[in-house]
Amino acid sequence: MASNRINRTIAGLAGAIALLTLGSGGAFAADEIVIGASVPLSGPLAGFGSFVQWGYKRAVDEVNKAGGLTVDGQKKMVKLIIRDDKTDPSVTASNTEALISRDKVVAMLGSCTPALVNAGALVAERAKKPLVTGCDPLEAFKSVRKWKYVWDLFFDEPELGAAQFKALDELGIAAKTNKKLALWHDNGPDGQVVGGKIWPALAKQFGYEVVQNAEFPVDNTQFTSIIAEAKNKGAEIVMVDAITPQAVAIRKQMAAGGFTPKVLNIEKGAEPVQFAEALGKLSDGVLVGGYWDPTFPYPGAADLAKAFEDETKLSSSQHIADSYAAAQVLLDGIAAAGSTDPNKINAALAKTDKTYVVGPIKFDENHTAKLPIVALQWQGGKTVIVWPKDAKTGDFLFPLP
Amino acid sequence: MTRSRNFAGYAEVAIILIAFALLWFAPLVVGDYWQQLGFRTLIYLTLAEGWNLMAGSAGLVSLGTSCFVGLGAYVAFGLLNGMGFPLPLTLGASAAAGAALAVLVSPALFRLRGLYFTVGTLALAELLRLIMVNVSAFGGASGIFLQNDPPALPVLFHYALGVALVASLAITACTRTRASVIFRAVRDDEDAAAQMGVRPFRVKLAAFAIASALAGMAGAVQGVKLGAIEPYGMFGLQWSIDTLTMVIIGGVGLRLGPLVGAVFLIALGEILADYPAAHIAIAGVILIVLIRFAPRGAVGFFGSMEQARRGRAAA
Amino acid sequence: MSLSGAPLLEASGLVKRYGGLVAIDHVDLTLASGTITGVIGPNGAGKSTLIGLIGGALAASQGSIRLEGRDVSRLAASERARAGIGRTYQIPRPFLDMSVEENLEVAQYSIAPFQSAASARREREALLERTGLADAAHLSAHALPLLRRKRLEVARALALKPKVVLLDEVGAGLVDSEITELIALIKSILDSKTAIVIVEHVIRVVRECCARSLVLNFGRMLVEGPTADILANDEVAAVYLGTHGAREKTPSRIPVSEEDLRATSEGTDAQRHLAPLIAPQETRSPAPALECRGVEAGYGQARVLKGVDLVVKEGEAVAILGANGAGKTTFARVITGALVPTAGSVHIGGRDVAGLPAHRIAGLGVTHCMEGRRIIPTLSVEENLRVAARGVDGSTARERLDAAYALFPVLAERRNSPGTSMSGGQQQMLAIARALMARPRLVIFDEISLGLAPVVMDKLYETLALLRQAGMTLVIIEQDVDRALALADQAYVLEHGAFSLSGKAADIAADPRLRHIYIGAEE
Amino acid sequence: MPDVTVASSTIASGVLLGGMLGLTALGLSIILGVMRLVNLAHGEFLLVGAYCGLFLVQLSGVDPLIGLPVVAIIVAGLAIPLYRLLLQPLANRGAEAQMMTMFAVSIILQNAFVLFFSADTRSIPERFAATPLTVGPVTVPLMYLIGFAISVAAILAVHWLVSRTGFGRDLRASAADPAAATTLGVDVRRVQMLTFALGAACAGVGGVLIGAGFQFGPSSGASYLLNSLAIVVLGGLGNVLGTLVGGVVLGALQSLGGLTLGDGYRDVVGMALFLAVLAFRPGGVLGGARG
User: Fold this and answer.
1) Which of residues 2 through 61 in chain A touch D, CB cutoff 8 A?
2) B140 contacts in chain A (CB < 8 Å)
3) Which chain D residues contact residue B124 at CB under 8 A?
């Protein structure tokens, strides 16, 4: 009886080990430079993930078409491994671990949105592997820790926050409203930075009256009381910081709640095209801060958007740009280092100083590089730049239809 | 029977100790990748062992594992950041917190039998997650960062190993000593057990508390490894789902069920790493097939095949 | 009455109500240590309920139970077990996937968790020795046959070192030789410090074990006294065989609602209405209505039917008698397809119905008026009836309903109230009417007299007589031998899963062996 | 405490929304009542309905509310093979086996959604969804009112089906005492199959209403499952009209929670209520009487 139990135990352990060895797939060829990324391809943020993935892939493909990179004196192809983190930070972390330990990547690209990027970045930092990312607002990025191996090129929340205020000011929109401002934001990291700190400060500075400042969790679906209150308080300008599903819900429930402010700005959630697709006409007039547009006067901007739209038959998003640029920065870093040694690559990244599709990139002491901000507005299912004047591609639609 | 049970018990303890002793030196021989895998497997093994004790020995099918994982992690972070506790002590505290929550909610949950208990645990987990998301005192949705850097991977691996060892020994204590008959009696026929003088409530509570304590510890170690925790990850339903799936795949109520299940599911995840969507779906298909054709899981299935073979040999 | 002074257990004024139904009605019971007390009475008399109340599985609605002067009435079953009350289950409930020895350990370690393994083992070995399971110690309880499972039940109860042992129907389903062993075992249990209660149908066990006995009927104490006198008592015999002796005495005790008494309408009147409820002759095949050959069946381990042959001709009324646990209801379940026989064949109207799902058999015109009525609580009276009238258009259903109401006017009055809100008798009427709604050719009436006042029984049997006159084929499964035999043409007596006696109802009624099978009293 | 306009509007829309969810909950309830099965894939059934509604609009352009019957039929049609192939074989294997199977189905469906429909946030174009309805101080989304009306109508229809028809009798008999029902000639398996299909259809229709009123994605199912469970428990198991009341009560209380503690606490209130009732009033706030 007992002995047979023991046999089974041993058999079981043997089987376990057999299975484990099955599990190991750590394929890694020496004639390739392996880089990796964990991005949200499913879950609430999948909308961003697909663009980011495209941007990364494109940059790598271009390098490979050009014959790869020269490291240790010989040309090598670049292999990009992408994992889905299901919009779950702990999955981003374990993905990043797997990329480092299993796939033996020499460097990595980031996920999207602070929660995810930071989770992966912490792993990279600990493993001392360089990671270049976009899609992580700089304040949220800096707030985590002092980074040594992680580099972030994206917009800076204060600037993004300021952009809309400046736009309304310079375009003389603010004057046409009662300057009563309602602020709604999720309680995620960037939500709290933008909606909780930056906006209230700017509102005071630009002479608005904040009649409401509401916070809600990231998986909330009901905004009726928030909306009813803003309507009741007579707010004519509403600024929201929320992810796409909530952005859609909020816009719909505003319409259904009979609340139509003169100006509606929805940060981050209103960026992806699915926002306009899900809402149809309701998306018209919604403002969103942007850091890129095909019309930008930077090398390859127009081509990038065109390439995307030809390939995917979807309308482009600014997320293809920062991801594309981030990948280019990393690849240039590897080329400059001329080696796959993480520290050398990291040193090279520090020296980055070049104009990319998103504009000039030069990292400061916090490992961040600011992207210029523009104010975008949804008009007929497309975004147009309404501010600053020199970059504008369309007129400000006022008031909100 | 008792004699052989005792003997088997000692044998099992010996095997466990040897196995874990060998694994202790794993970091010296295997690379990061294997340590990462090992870590994940050990964490899940711990959760699955506890879940298996509840379901297999007390008939409690829980979907609430996640709230104890999350609780453990948050308690650990609180103590580490707030009071600079040493990690081992923190693990103890997380375990205690898990058990305490179990005791706290048991009077309500144990009024529910069968399916309703399962649903109740699910609701409890969701409730806790929502609270953590909303209460900014616990960092709200942004969660908390670990102030000082987490220990190196080999150290973390050893912690996971320690936790899993505690789990394995605890389960051995519950399944190889006289306690096991009490547990099984309650699972098989609560009323008949009561007529034998067994107090079903206390027995169930014991299983629930032990499982929750283990989950608490596992959560603490996992949190420390991440270095940053937030409600969606630590209180995510995924923990409960994975744990339950592992035990069912491995074999409910069987000593090796959790191990086989955990190893199998994690191996599967690695094999299908490049098709993330497929991986979970395939786990689902496997689940359906096992429930239908091998109710006692992979271990039970091969066990019975083994017996059949013996039978033929005998005949 | 006791040999050794103060009573060990004292139950006074015990009452157990289930909704309207009173299962135990002010029963007093006093047990002295060193005695064995027998509790007998027909099915539904409340014997097992009494055990449940003392053992703590059921909470008493009224009354108190004192063990050695300590009130235990409010304690949970587990606490009473710890206080020293051990019980066995009528159908053994061992922990199947444990070994016999482990089954005992449950009891041992729950009362003394830290008892040394060695002493615990010694005790177990002694116990298994006493209960004749020594050789089975390491077998899984699964592997035990019925008798040994019953022995295990006893051993488990004893492992609690109980002061009071409650044995519930330990004899049921055993053959004589087994019963002999069992009696020996029970006698061996008794010592000067314990008191034993035996609830039994197998009268022999009571006669040979118990100095004193009490008889329960309709939840009340009928008589109490020395076993010998009790068994000689005609009143007791009457309770068992349902002879008129009993019927004159009992009514005074049983509450009978006015409605019940005028429930069934007059024969002639009803017969006119009966047509819609009885399959017309011409649709019937020449083959026998029901033909069973070598039917064997059981539940897992327990083989209940061990080769039963039965032929029921069209228009015949057949009584199937037998003590509790003899397999009567199992046989009914086999016929109606609820239970698949392990061997043998069942033909209905010449058609082999092996493996046909139950709901199809009902379609073939064989319906089952189930034991315990099984009225659907969530359906009204009329809905309960309509459910059984399947695949017929509205007007036909209406016609049958009217017929059923004509048969039992009280149902018409209550047509919209929930089926289970009525008195036991009315519910039984509903069950009977429901069995007719399918317009069957053959109906199995399963223990329809269970727990009913004799007056009500009479009414029900009058109805059955009507059905029989109207040419319906009846299979009557009964405790109440007299009534069944009075009605039936043929009678079969089941004993341990086989017919031990069969023939013309009249002859059976006269046969002395019948009384023996039931209460085994010497002639 | 916010002023009357806000409060009344919020609570009104909460009540309407609760009633809207009641239909989905009803599907869960009857399956639970008849099959003793907690259908953990109910949320995904709801999403199947939502996607059907969406594609129906995109392909045919008919108003999703017109398309409701079609969706109901499609979803029910999908449920029947599921029952035949996966659940029926487990009929005698206790509740857990079936529940776990449906749980597996739910994760498979979730992945299927991502695979075939992408992980995008969707919303069914429906003009009423963007139209407010103002009565005095109260403003509610017109869609909520319509959804509520449809839901109530459907619930009443089911109530009629269960309490007045032959199928309803069979259904209640099978739920109360399957063995007895079989002996009376009821084909319990068939009843269960149809019940399962009916329950799925309820979820599907509910899905269209929710898809039009809100937004949905492949992983939205879980939260609606929990919501429905809460409603079922509140209304009392198997109590058809109870689910409607349960929905309304839940909706009202959640809105109150949202008003007083902030919108984030809606679900907290829901879950807390759910647990409390489950533990201390298992019969539901109305008592467990079957409708």
Assistant:
1) 41-44, 46-47, 49-50
2) 187, 192, 217
3) 275
Q: Where are the domains of chain B?
A: 2-236
Q: Are strands A374-379 and A382-387 parallel, antiparallel or unpaired?
A: antiparallel
C-alpha closest to that of C497 among C379, C349, C368, C342: C342
Q: Does C159 touch chain B (CB under 8 A)?
A: yes
The secondary structure element, H or E, covering residue A210 is strand A209-216
Yes or no, beta carbons of D169 and C386 under 8 Å apart: yes
Reference B129, options B118, B140, B116; nearest CA is: B140
CB C177 within 8 A of CB C329: no
With an 8 Å Cβ cutoff, is B275 touching chain A? no
Give the dihedral of Cα atoms C165, C168, C173, C177; nearest 10 deg.
30
Which residues in D lie closer than 8 A to residue B291 (C-beta atoms)?
Answer: 90, 97, 100-101, 104
Q: Is C358 on the interface with D (CB under 8 A)?
A: yes
What gap in Å lies between CA C441 and CA C439, rounded to an integer?
Answer: 7
- Residues B12 and B129: beta-carbon distance below 8 Å: no
The helix/strand count (H/E) of chain A reads as 14, 16
- Report which residue type is found at B293: F
d(CA C215, CA C227): 10
- Beta bridge partner(s), residue C475: C318, C444
How many beta-carbon contacts under 8 Å exist across B and C?
Answer: 84
- Chain A closest CA to B70's CA: distance in Å? 12
Are C311 and C483 in contact by the 8 Å Cβ rule? The answer is no
Task: Please tell me the distance from the alpha carbon of residue C335 to that of residue C290, in angstroms, as a whole number.
Answer: 9
What the block records as the tokens of A167 is: 């736009």
- Contact between B178 and C109 (Cβ < 8 Å): yes
pLDDT of C4-36, one tens digit each?
Answer: 456 899 999 999 887 667 788 889 999 998 899
- 0.90 exceeded by pTM: no
Domain ranges of chain D: 20-218
Q: Which residues of C touch D180 (CB under 8 A)?
A: 370, 374, 376
Q: Which chain D residues touch B236 with a CB distance below 8 Å?
A: none
pLDDT, tens digit (0-9, with 9 covering 90-100), for C230-241: 888 877 777 766
Nearest to D183 among C358, C378, C386 (CB): C358
SS3 C66: strand
Amino acid at A276: A
- Put simply, whether D256 touches B (Cβ < 8 Å) is no
Distance from C-alpha of A243 to C-alpha of A162, rounded to nearest angstrom:
20
How far apart CA C11 and CA B9 sit, in angstroms, is: 46
User: Could you count the other beta carbons within 10 Å of the beta carbon of residue D28?
Assistant: 29
Strand partners, C195: C164
Mean pLDDT check: name the lowest of B140-144, C442-446, D253-257: B140-144
Q: What is the pLDDT of residues D170-184, one digit of tens each?
A: 999 999 999 899 999
Q: One-letter amino acid identity for D164?
A: R
Q: Could you tell me if C375 and C427 are in contact, meaning their C-beta atoms sit under 8 angstroms apart?
A: yes
Name beta bridge partners: A368. A152
Other CB atoms within 10 Å distance of the CB of residue C82: 18
Query: From CA C439, how far away is CA C472, in angstroms rounded?
Result: 10
CA separation for the pair A162, C342 (Å, rounded): 84
Assigned token pair, A372: 């210029």
Which of D163, D184, D188, D239 best probes binding to C when mutated, by most C CB atoms within 10 angstroms?
A: D184
Residue C95 main-chain phi, psi, to 5 deg: -80, 105
Q: What pLDDT, in 10s, does the model give residues C322-335?
A: 876 678 888 988 99
At position B149, the amino acid (one-letter code) is: D
Sheet with C302-312, side-by-side order of all strands = C302-312, C290-299, C343-348, C351-352
Strand, helix or coil for residue C207: helix
Chain A residues whose beta carbon lies within 8 Å of the beta carbon of residue B11? 2, 5-6
